[in-house]
Amino acid sequence: MFKFTTASKNLLVRSFSSSVSAQGAKVAVLGAAGGIGQPLSMLLKLNPLVGDLNLYDIANAPGVASDLSHINTSSTVRGFSTEEQGLSKALEGRDVVVIPAGVPRKPGMTRDDLFGMNAKIAMDLSIACAEVCPKASILIISNPVNSLLPLAAQVFKNKGVFDPKKMIGITTLDLVRASRFAFEKTGKVQFIPVIGGHAGTTIVPLYSQCSSLKLSPEDLAALVHRTQFGGDEVVQAKAGKGSATLSMAYAGARLVDSVVRASQGEDVVECGFVANDTYASEGVDYFAGILRLGKEGVSEILPLPENITQLEKDAIKAALPQLASAAKKGIDFVTNN
Ligand code: NAI
């Protein structure tokens, strides 16, 4: 699970150590002044493994950076606006780029409804990443992830720099929700893989892997539904003022932490939406799998556990056509623009 707490135990001791800053990961957040971007940037500022944090947004990134730069941890924070090649400067030398730039949902909207607004943003930012920091790990939060990760991958492919180990659509919030919702029933925090995609019924939580969870079929169905539509719960509760931001910031910070720890040699397992040929025979090239992270990004897509249930197998099968068409939409956007 998330080791951020372990690292943060030493936070005060290490706050003023310049060596941490010199060795720490170089991270950029694109969309850093938004509802997710601000708390995500703060969590990254608190992470001793992050040495250098660049914040970019079309509005107010220098303000957010100035604010965070007063927190007495060792990392440096700089803000970049759209003026004077700000995006390129923000991306220079980055090890990890996290992208929460884009419009969030309002009640009644699906993630796919955001495509028209967010595809161009994702394409422009992907082009800049491919040109300035093609070897960085690119972690995409913006929705619809099921289309925007394939879109970004296509941009990188067209420029000849795509590395499937280095590009992940962030589904970590689905794992966080599954873990929390199971905890509410079992009292135990456990890693529950969530595979498939990041939209409605493409989100497939593998509660079969939670040995302490004993539920009736009806209660299990309700738990699966809540995991798939947990985002809607937040959108409705916020009543037009956006979607999940704080839990998403936590989830994004966890994945960055995992990627950085793995890059330093730690064996880390996460889930994420990646180029994945497990279901290529069914026309699906992008699928959220259980990922082993290593020094160079995704080192292995782990096989699905043998004991997954028939219901889970059926859910995967039902998700495949949706995933194929969502990916096509992203790829077609690159071809046509
Ligand atoms: P927000 O509207 O609060 O913030 C978005 C930020 O992006 C704004 O500060 C805006 O100025 C910035 N932005 C817009 N165009 C930009 C560009 N071209 N370059 C750089 N920055 C740009 O939205 P919020 O709540 O932070 O959500 C961001 C995205 O994350 C949405 O698409 C939302 O659907 C998605 N999301 C994804 C989740 C996941 O699990 N992957 C969970 C929750 C939200």
From TrEMBL:
- Give the top-level enzyme category: oxidoreductase
The lineage's top-level taxon is: Eukaryota
Domain Lactate/malate dehydrogenase C-terminal intervals: 171-333
- Write out the coiled-coil annotation as residue ranges: none
EC numbers = 1.1.1.37
Q: Which residues of this protein are catalytic?
A: H198
Q: Which transformation does this protein catalyse, written as a reaction?
A: (S)-malate + NAD(+) = oxaloacetate + NADH + H(+)
> Which residues does the annotation say bind NAD(+)?
G31, A32, A33, G34, G35, I36, G37, D57, N118, I141, S142, N143, M248
**Residues annotated as binding substrate:** R105, R111, N143, R177
Q: Which GO BP annotation is one of this protein's?
A: carboxylic acid metabolic process
Summary of subunit composition and partner proteins: Homodimer.
Family, as annotated: Belongs to the LDH/MDH superfamily. MDH type 1 family.
What's the protein called, per UniProt? malate dehydrogenase
Q: Per the UniProt entry, what species is this protein from, by scientific name?
A: Smittium megazygosporum
Kindly list the organism's lineage: Eukaryota, Fungi, Fungi incertae sedis, Zoopagomycota, Kickxellomycotina
